[in-house]
Specification:
The protein has one domain. Helices cover 73% and strands 0% of the residues. It is mostly helical and 346 residues long. Helix 3 packs across helix 13, helix 5 runs antiparallel to helix 14 and helix 7 runs antiparallel to helix 8. The radius of gyration is 21 Å and the shape is globular.
Length: 346
């Protein structure tokens, strides 16, 4: 998820420190689903280190959480007749996206394609965390331009730099160049971290309101990113799956909760069925939404690979994930979308 949220500047009389913090859903929901699910990522890492079979963890991750979160996007796009009109031809981008992988396989560039795919995947995950921070900032009426940029760049660096160092370490022969890139990446991140921490300390000492959920998210996320990619690097390029599980579980659980919060608020109004169509039917209970997401993933991804075990098919099915990344970059932009803002109680 990514957002384009900007909000009015916070009132001068707002209390300092953490008092008066506003949440996206509620204090309990945000702490459990948007912050606390980082613990699931740490648990996944611990299970892998303990020797639990990777195949078992992967099945639970893909079938139970990550795959359904990708197809869950369908419940508020393809199944919503109002969104179909708004998004228009963009919904057909799925067709060319399905051909990117097979073309790469045909040209003998499978390794390059899968590297591109996982890099886009992890950038998408990082952008979702940026989106949550922007939502919390909007809820708490924070619009300081300097802090907005600092939050965004620190979060992006927290996700992109560990991934970049993983790619360098696992795909380039060890040597002076790799060591220099690694040292440079760590130095850049250390500088950004120092700037971020100093800014927060100065803000606290000045008695300004502090964004508690943002800080809690970063406290759970940043170490998880470095631990996940550091551990994954021990297994070479294929280790990316291990990092993907730890970080993807966190990301997908966040997404399911936000999607259901949105769908319940948007599609349970009296005129929702006439206005939105089948999307409103699936919003009558979480079980309907989740069963649809799981079923779609099984039909669109699991079943084809079981019936047609050919080399190019897994690459083709990455197009579904690419479509999810593309749609997510469009459908969560609160600015200018009054219905979305209302559904998220902004």
């Amino acid at each position: 998820m990514s957002t384009g949220v900007l909000s009015p500047s916070f009132a001068a009389q707002a209390p300092g420190g953490f008092s008066g913090t506003r949440w996206i859903i509620s204090r309990q929901d945000d702490l459990v689903w948007f912050v606390g699910t980082a613990l699931v990522g740490y648990l996944a890492l611990a299970l892998m280190v303990a020797g639990v079979p990777l195949a078992l963890i992967t099945v639970v991750w893909l079938l139970g959480v990550d795959g359904p979160h990708v197809t869950g996007t369908v419940t508020r796009t393809y199944f919503d007749k109002q969104e179909r009109r708004r998004l228009g031809w963009l919904l057909w981008a799925l067709v060319p996206l399905l051909f990117i992988g097979p073309l790469a396989v045909y040209l003998g560039q499978s390794a390059l394609f899968y590297l591109f795919a996982v890099c886009w995947q992890h950038y998408h995950i990082t952008k979702q965390h940026v989106g949550f921070v922007m939502l919390w900032k909007a809820k708490n009426k924070e619009r300081d331009a300097t802090e907005m940029r600092l939050d965004r760049w620190f979060l992006l660096a927290s996700g992109v730099i560990p991934l970049a160092l993983f790619v360098v370490k696992t795909r380039i022969e060890p040597g002076t160049f790799v060591n220099a890139i690694t040292a440079g990446g760590i130095a850049v991140f250390a500088v950004l971290t120092a700037i971020f921490v100093v800014y927060q300390i100065r803000k606290w000492r000045a008695g300004k309101p502090m964004n508690l959920p943002k800080l809690l998210l970063l406290a759970g996320l940043v170490p998880l990113q470095w631990l996940a990619f550091g551990y994954a690097a021990r297994f070479g390029p294929d280790g990316i799956v291990r990092a993907g599980i730890a970080l993807g579980l966190f990301h997908s659980l966040q997404y399911h909760r936000l999607m259901w919060f949105h769908n319940k608020n948007r599609y349970q109004t009296p005129d929702a069925r006439a206005k939105h169509g089948f999307a409103a039917v699936l919003a009558q209970g979480f079980g309907y939404y989740f069963a649809a997401a799981v079923g779609l993933y099984f039909i669109a991804d699991v079943l084809p690979q079981a019936l047609f075990p050919v080399q190019w098919l897994p690459a083709a099915l990455w197009g579904i994930a690419f479509m999810h990344y593309l749609l997510d970059s469009k459908i969560w932009r609160v600015r200018g979308d009054k219905e979305l803002a209302a559904a998220l109680q902004m």
